[in-house]
Write a structure and sequence with these properties.
single chain; 1 helix
Amino acid sequence: MKRYQVYFQYFNQGETGSDAYRFASPEEARAKVEELREAIVAGFDARGDLEVIDEDDFYGIMDRATGDYAKVIIAPGLGK
């Protein structure tokens, strides 16, 4: 069985964090990516000078003024 992995990483006001999630279907993985994407957008909503990268397997935002960022990546995982 093929698995899908979603990676979330951030740096915000000097704090860093990351998490990884595994899913059995691409639909579940895409739903998690969308959930995290919405959280990222909400967290950076009031900021001004943002760089946004929005691709099929990667979503990220970086505040150019502070260097704060958040990103979510989806990747095929290992079987079983």
